[in-house]
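Appendix B. Chain record.
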Amino acid sequence: MADTSMERMYQALITRVDEIIKEKDIPRLEALAEALLQVPSEGTLSEKRKAFQFSYLYQVKEEPVQPNHQLTPDAIGYLVAHIVDLFTKGESANLIDIGSGTGHLAMTVKEMVENVELSGIEVDPSLAEINANLCEFLEVPMNIHPQNVIEPSRVNNANIAIGDLPVGYYPLPATDYKTAFKTGQSFAHLLMLEAGMNLINKDDIGVFVVPSNILEENNETIKEYISEDVSLLMFLNLPSTIFKTEKQRKSLIVLKKGFSPLINNEVLIGDVPDFKNTVKMQEFIRQLDEWHEQYDRK
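Structure tokens predicted for this chain:
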């Protein structure tokens, strides 16, 4: 028996998805999008978001999806949120999620940082639909732009950009991008990172989940980019324990728009400890906060 608000909503979503599939014979995520508009929501934002999260995970377990359609784990989302909170300092800010998918990462940040207003860009119509319906379920507004972020757009600039960037090659030529390779197909995650930084103002911040080897393999264009157009503030390797292989490991990269020479080793580079190790995580967050205090004085 479901005892909490989260459990009741989760069970209601699971039941309604199964009913919709029997009625219409449609993919599970499409049915979930419909169910979000039909199942009443209750409780806190955290409870409602987790009810969606667990129901989404259940659907993709029953009907697997490509890796880029997986949700960003909460531990990573909360760390992104903490960094966003440090740089917004409690002031109102417009946040844009690059390749926003279902909107789950942006909603995780909103759960922790109430002062941000959300927008997102997502090219996949099925994910954008889930995002739109999730806004209704969570009762959190978010401007969703169903388009390719790499193509020219009229999206308004934000104060901070985030993104769990899909890894892979971009199939089309990418003109006017410094991170594009000189020959052959370019990395989509590099182009999306640059596109995200293009949508914020000078001195504003981008926080992205990227492959850990982003600065090591095929790194000529990204190294040029971070030495001319943006400033590297942080590069934090996420715990290897949450990835199946070292090749799949990801990191958080934090950039400031506009290049400025490094002063007093102000770039924070290191490894995030295992999220389950509470003592080490508390120490890591303390070091992160101290770094930001020093950075903020400059």
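Further analysis of this model is presented in Appendix C.
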